[in-house]
From TrEMBL:
<dbReference type="InterPro" id="IPR001387">
    <property type="entry name" value="Cro/C1-type_HTH"/>
</dbReference>
<keyword id="KW-0805">Transcription regulation</keyword>
<dbReference type="Pfam" id="PF01381">
    <property type="entry name" value="HTH_3"/>
</dbReference>
<dbReference type="InterPro" id="IPR050807">
    <property type="entry name" value="TransReg_Diox_bact_type"/>
</dbReference>
<feature type="domain" description="HTH cro/C1-type">
    <location>
        <begin position="45"/>
        <end position="99"/>
    </location>
</feature>
<dbReference type="GO" id="GO:0003677">
    <property type="term" value="F:DNA binding"/>
</dbReference>
<dbReference type="GO" id="GO:0003700">
    <property type="term" value="F:DNA-binding transcription factor activity"/>
</dbReference>
<keyword id="KW-0804">Transcription</keyword>
<keyword id="KW-0238">DNA-binding</keyword>
<protein>
    <submittedName>
        <fullName>Helix-turn-helix protein</fullName>
    </submittedName>
</protein>
<dbReference type="InterPro" id="IPR010982">
    <property type="entry name" value="Lambda_DNA-bd_dom_sf"/>
</dbReference>
<dbReference type="GO" id="GO:0005829">
    <property type="term" value="C:cytosol"/>
</dbReference>
Length: 103
């Protein structure tokens, strides 16, 4: 997209950086996010994990995910991937449907 641009000085570099940041961040807001549903999934994960006596740290160890990522999912701070949800469900010995079926 910008392969034929010549950067002559710091001002050109600055302007190009702003343009790239604009395009990068303008696409971020377009991702679908159902915050109430993410919060419900997070609460469900906590419920299942605690019922099984598993800490965030243990779940992170089992899934090979960072403990902070488990926390972000539980607090609905991230719109996590389907692959991560499946990995968590597998390690909790439940189906993905149990984790995602929120009433």
């Amino acid at each position: 997209m910008f392969s034929n641009i010549t950067i002559k000085d710091k001002k050109d570099k600055y302007v190009l950086t702003l343009i790239l940041l604009y395009f990068d961040f303008s696409s971020v807001g377009k991702q679908y996010r159902d915050q109430p549903y993410l919060e419900a999934v997070g609460r469900k994960l906590i419920e299942i994990r605690e019922k099984q006596g598993i800490t965030q740290e243990k779940l992170a160890e089992l899934t090979k995910f960072d403990t902070r990522q488990i926390g972000r999912i539980e607090r609905a701070e991230t719109n996590t991937s389907i692959s991560m949800i499946k990995a968590i469900a597998d390690k909790l010995n439940i189906g993905v449907d149990e984790m995602l079926n929120i009433k």
